[in-house]
Amino acid sequence: MANMGSEIIIRPELRPCEVKFRGEVKKALFHKWMTYAEIIKPSLMIEGDNGGQLQCDQAIVELENGLVTIVPPWEVKFVDNAFCEFAWAWPEDDKNHSKEKEGD
To answer: Can you give the pTM of this predicted structure?
Structure first.
């Protein structure tokens, strides 16, 4: 029987990506997703907005020069093709999910 060690190692996985930062496409390492939230004060205008909280997801990335910054999800393009690590179990006769569709 194989030796079942009791040690569990968890390490964050960095993924290479390209991000649009200050109008330029830059090489970066993706660290993780975060939720950014900001309090919006009520408007002083009559019948103005009541205020509340603005919340959105952001990516924490590290640029080649070492700068760590946040960017919105639509500015991140992963370049490691992680889909190759997964098996897609589509039925062979399912034409909507064929491995290679013409025109893609």
So the answer is: 0.66
